[in-house]
Predict the structure.
Amino acid sequence: MGSLVYVGGIPLEEAHSAVTIDGKKVVDELERIGYRGTAPSPSPGPAPYAYVELHIEQGPILEAEKFGLGAVTGVQGISWTEVTVNGQANHAGTTPMSLRHDACFVAGETIAFVRRLTKEMGGAQVGTVGAIDLDPRTRDSQRVRRWPTR
């Protein structure tokens, strides 16, 4: 987002007002860590000759391969999917397994499927399920309300 603001792709105010997945405003977090800065963006004056944006996402790979520096050879395309799985609430102790419709079980199987699928596809393919919200939070069957994947 920082580089997008720098090149004029989105206004600074829009980036500052963005809210993280855990409900925090970007500007508040920048202030909290002392990294809000005072320079206007984009900077006045001539455009830079070149712009390099450093990333550390490959850090674990470089460390495992014993490299201090690496060149990125590919980029990722992100697809976010939010899924709702509806189940049927029943008594957890007396409902026979053949009559259960547990959303949490389906969610678990789907999470395992995402992992198996990425391994089967091979290469640099990745898949992640980042969060699950259960509603209601009970020992009885639930409905999985919010389930973002990446």
About this structure: The two ends are 18 Å apart (CA to CA). The chain has a mean pLDDT of 81. The chain has two domains: 2-53, 81-149. Residues 103-121 form the longest helix (19 residues).
